[in-house]
């Protein structure tokens, strides 16, 4: 019931702009930005390469517009900044974040118009945000963002060097009529999970869909929902 309610709220969020705009978030207890915070690490623990403008929605449906923010995948928190200091948003009080292309100079991933993050959709971790790749009436495709930290030691001319790297290890979930299934974002594995394999493979071929980008997967989900689900009784 909780997940159905969140998805319904998501539809309203995407289709309308009914939320009351709030004053800027106060940075009194914010931390100073440390540019060396991840010095010596390879890879990126953040979703975006730079700070981007986004809208944040709290539990009361109120919206904070055009905040400079980024999602720290390592800590599973959104960070907002005023340019000098930053705050971690407490997930108990904020449930959705949207980032739109028309409000940003940087190109969003896969030429998408917007990216939506929702908290509370993972049954085993309701405080963690997920990226909503597709939100149909019966089918949803969710991306759980995750980075793994690896380290190894290298001996170099009598000196031991420790290399640390962030590696993206995202997980995906296909939700059909409220039932969650893990899905691998590889053509063969995904079609087997979804079914019917032959019909979906034929559609991918006729539509020249290579499943290379997120928007390709969105198109597949839409086709799947509209043509291959059993009627609800």
Please mark out the parts with pLDDT under 50 across 5 or more consecutive residues, or reply none: none
Strand % is: 35-45%
Largest sheet: 11 strands, antiparallel
Order of helices and strands: HEEEEEEEEEEEEEEHHH
The overall pLDDT average reads 87
Task: Specify the structural class.
Answer: alpha+beta
What topology, given as strand order, has the largest sheet? Answer: 1-6-5-4-3-7-8-9-10-13-14
Distance between the termini: 19 Å
Radius of gyration: 20 Å
> What gross morphology would you assign?
globular
Question: How many extended strands?
Answer: 14
Integer tally of domains: 2
Briefly, what is this?
The protein has 233 residues and is α+β, with helices and mostly antiparallel strands. Helix content is 20%, strand content 37%.
What do these coordinates show?
The chain is built from 4 helices and 14 strands. With 233 residues, the chain is α+β, with helices and mostly antiparallel strands. It has 2 domains: 182 residues, no CATH class; 49 residues, no CATH class. The strands form 2 sheets. Strands 1-6-5-4-3-7-8-9-10-13-14 form an 11-stranded antiparallel β-sheet. The protein has a 3-stranded mixed β-sheet with strand order 2-12-11, with no helix packed on it. It is globular and about 55 Å long. The mean pLDDT is 87.
């Amino acid at each position: 019931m909780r997940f159905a309610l969140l998805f319904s709220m998501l539809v309203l969020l995407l289709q309308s702009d009914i939320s009351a705009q709030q004053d800027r978030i106060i940075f009194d207890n914010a931390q100073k930005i440390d540019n060396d915070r991840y010095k010596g690490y390879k890879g990126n623990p953040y979703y975006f390469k730079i700070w981007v403008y986004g809208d944040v929605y709290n539990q009361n449906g109120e919206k904070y517009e055009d905040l400079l923010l980024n999602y720290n995948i390592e800590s599973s928190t959104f960070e907002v900044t005023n340019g000098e200091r930053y705050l971690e948003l407490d997930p108990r009080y904020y449930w959705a974040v949207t980032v739109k292309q028309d409000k940003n100079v940087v190109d969003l991933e896969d030429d998408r118009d917007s990216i939506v993050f929702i908290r509370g959709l993972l049954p085993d971790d309701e405080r963690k945000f997920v990226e909503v790749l597709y939100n149909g009436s019966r089918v949803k495709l969710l991306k759980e963002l995750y980075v793994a930290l690896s380290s190894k030691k290298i001996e170099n001319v009598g000196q031991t060097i420790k290399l640390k790297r962030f590696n993206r290890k995202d997980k995906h979930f296909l939700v059909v009529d409220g039932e969650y299934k893990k899905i691998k974002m590889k053509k063969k594995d995904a079609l087997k999970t979804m079914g019917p394999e032959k019909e979906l493979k034929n559609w991918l071929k006729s539509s020249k869909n290579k499943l290379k980008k997120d928007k390709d997967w969105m198109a597949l989900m839409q086709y799947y929902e509209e043509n291959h689900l059993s009627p609800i009784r």
